[in-house]
Amino acid sequence: MQKGLITLLTLFIVLLQAALPNFGYAGAPVVHLSPKPVWLNTYKAYDKKVSSRNITNGYFYQLFEEQLHVEKQADYTHIIKEIVSEAGIQNGSSINIGFDPSFERLDVHDITVWRNNKPEKRLSARSFKILADEKELSRFIYQGSYSAYCILDDIRKGDRIEYSYTITGRNPIFNNKFSQDLYFQSSVPFAHVYKSILVSPSRKLNFKSFNKTPQASVSKKDGLTNYEWSAYQVLPVEYFDNQPGWYNNYAYIQVSDYSSWKEVTDWALSVNPVIPVTNGKLAVQIAGLKAATKGNKERYFRAAVKMVQDEVRYMGIEMGEYSHRANSPEKVFNQRYGDCKDKSLLLASVLRAGGIEAEMVLVNSGIDAGIDKFIPTPNAFNHAVVVATINNKQVWVDATISYQRGTGTNIYFPEYGKGLVLKPGNNGLTTITPVKTGKIDLQERYTITDEKAKVPFIVTTVYTLNEADKIRDKLASSSMSETEKSYLNYYTKVYPKIEQTDSVTVIDDEENNTVTTIEHYLISDLLKKGKETGRFEAGFYANYINDLLPVIPNKAVSPVALSFPLNINYTIQVVMPNGWNIEEGHNEIKRDAYIFKSQSSAENDTLSLNYQLAYLKDFIPVDKLDETREDAKKVSDNELSYSFTFTPDVSKVPYHFNYWMFLAVMIFAVGLIIQAIRIYKTETKSLQFVHWRYQMPIGGWLILIALGLAITPLAIFAIIINNGSFDLSKWNLALPGASKAFYKAAFTFEVFGNIFSLCYTSFCFFLLIKRRDIFPKLVIGLYAYHVVFHFMDYALLQAAGVKLDTDDSRDVMRSMIVAAIWIPYFIKSTRVQKTFIMPYPVSNYAFDTNIQPQTEGHEQEIKGDKLPG
């Protein structure tokens, strides 16, 4: 689409050139051949070359000379460049001289190629090709400038190319006022730099140096003041990617004969006064705006802004004096196009016609607040905006921004820092109060139903304030099919098998200035088979955040620009059956220039990965580059990625023996066995025993107890095996919705609890067979332990977030019912009291016939047993 626009613009230029006289064009651009001016200074030649280690592009400048005659409006340039390699032949064998024929004359004085210290004259008018030099076409600006190109034949390694020319004439818009920047550095090295200015003593020049410039030598020549500067062995300035637009580390001097900002204000007001609108189509339009807004100034303000921003397209014809002079508001409105000053003057005029105080303001969109470092000059500005006063509130408006919406005076304005308000008497720059910036809320939602089904993927993005303005303009500049294709291509890079299932939905709330876009996709390859059978894997990466992180060159020694203002809230949501098994995580990096936050959490079946990135300034200072580089790497490598495994059927996962768990269980079991032996051998000294003939056999309800104690260890052993107690995969299982730490704690508690129950139950069964006196107390403890164990196991699993079924709650209830029945029985049953009377060691008592019974009724044969109560 951009190529098509440039083609249309090129056609427009061809048609425009046919009508150039209407714009004050002086004729076809011509290269004149003439001798050097007679007013030039002479200086001592310098023959030392640039060190080979500093040469770039295969050539260097032996001499770069500029002499300016302010009163004659003439700029003389003399250059000698030496080719040192084949690369230099490619890069340095042409001459390119830019000029504006509407007010400038180009005179070439000499072209000489020195080979083996012998001169070869190459000057010829036919050697030059004159081409339109429209570098700003992509920004819809036509300047009318040209370049005279001379491509030299037969240039060889070691040749020196020497040429000189003079450009005479200055833009008449400045009324013979002079201001210019003198640069002493470039991207290539200079052996010798010479600059001079000849000026009338009656003209007071103001100077300001930047980045260590040479000292000026001041003298008198032919009744003029002569300023001269010389620099030797000037190294090139290294450029680093992502430097801020305002950053200028070249050595240069700003020269201006404007003594104050008031002079600049007065000049600008004389060039672009706000013109009252009294008739024509624009007056009719203004009358319509007044009628529609019924005297409400805020509504009138918004209607006027919308008309100028959206109905008058951005296009600049900046030839000659129109580089700074705006066209009349009536003309701009009728032709429906204009550049920044055209649209700003139109808007200011329309606002004033509605009773709103409004002025044009000159700003620099690249330098921002740094403009106050300059001495007064019109060249300090590159953009025009408007400031209006509505209900005692100052409102700033950029008329070149399209599709700004909202109500009243709530309108976004870029942080241009400071501006020169074109109001009579103004003698200083005005600080522009920053306004509230917008935000982008981006949510990506994946819904996984199983490992085979395509995953629905919905992207919802909400833009507010200036972000809404930008996306609204972007959507208006492209067709919906182009937009959908662009969005789909973005995600195709991550998911090759993604498909779009519906058109992009756009919801534009103009009153609140928010735009919402909704995208609908299906992804076929989100879940990929893992290394183990039965496991699937998926991962996410916050590419959107990563693309916005600052890129800091390793050896950068200059500030790095940030995409200010920026405020992104990016959320990835993944819906999974049975929920998630994650621990909440949070991280934050807070610096003066930026804030990054990340957070991971889960609620029910939804995983949320949230990332926030905000830029608080427009650059990273040099002393913070290392810190920022480390922060960006940390975020990119560690904070933006998330992966998980999905196990639809745990039974399909291969078995891996957990040796560490098995070893721990064996040690625990041995400890329990040793303790059981110690308890079994403990003598009950306080017990008085009856004759062994009166000990009752195991019978009655004790038969059920015996069967239960015999079967229970087998059942517990089966549970231990079937539950994968020694399966490493089960230990590492990521259960949806479960905390890893709590899950492993519950898993460990269950394994060791079952082992304890197995040993305890077996020991009780052994004591029952032996009819030991300590059996009733220990079996009561066993039933109580089962209640506590099942209850704590249930509580731990629930705390871990494991989804429980009815069997888990039944285990708790079953253990409580069993304990409620048998614990009272063992406390009150007469049969229990008569059956379990064998102490240890049996050899001391079992066959001692001299022991007499101590309790009445023990001599009687007990034939029955009954439950308590």
UniProtKB/TrEMBL annotation:
<keyword id="KW-1133">Transmembrane helix</keyword>
<dbReference type="InterPro" id="IPR038765">
    <property type="entry name" value="Papain-like_cys_pep_sf"/>
</dbReference>
<feature type="domain" description="DUF3857">
    <location>
        <begin position="75"/>
        <end position="237"/>
    </location>
</feature>
<feature type="transmembrane region" description="Helical">
    <location>
        <begin position="701"/>
        <end position="721"/>
    </location>
</feature>
<dbReference type="InterPro" id="IPR024618">
    <property type="entry name" value="DUF3857"/>
</dbReference>
<dbReference type="Pfam" id="PF10754">
    <property type="entry name" value="DUF2569"/>
</dbReference>
<keyword id="KW-0812">Transmembrane</keyword>
<feature type="domain" description="Transglutaminase-like">
    <location>
        <begin position="295"/>
        <end position="397"/>
    </location>
</feature>
<dbReference type="Pfam" id="PF01841">
    <property type="entry name" value="Transglut_core"/>
</dbReference>
<feature type="transmembrane region" description="Helical">
    <location>
        <begin position="812"/>
        <end position="828"/>
    </location>
</feature>
<keyword id="KW-0472">Membrane</keyword>
<protein>
    <submittedName>
        <fullName>DUF3857 domain-containing protein</fullName>
    </submittedName>
</protein>
<dbReference type="InterPro" id="IPR019690">
    <property type="entry name" value="DUF2569"/>
</dbReference>
<feature type="transmembrane region" description="Helical">
    <location>
        <begin position="741"/>
        <end position="768"/>
    </location>
</feature>
<feature type="transmembrane region" description="Helical">
    <location>
        <begin position="659"/>
        <end position="680"/>
    </location>
</feature>
<dbReference type="InterPro" id="IPR002931">
    <property type="entry name" value="Transglutaminase-like"/>
</dbReference>
<dbReference type="Pfam" id="PF12969">
    <property type="entry name" value="DUF3857"/>
</dbReference>
<feature type="transmembrane region" description="Helical">
    <location>
        <begin position="780"/>
        <end position="800"/>
    </location>
</feature>
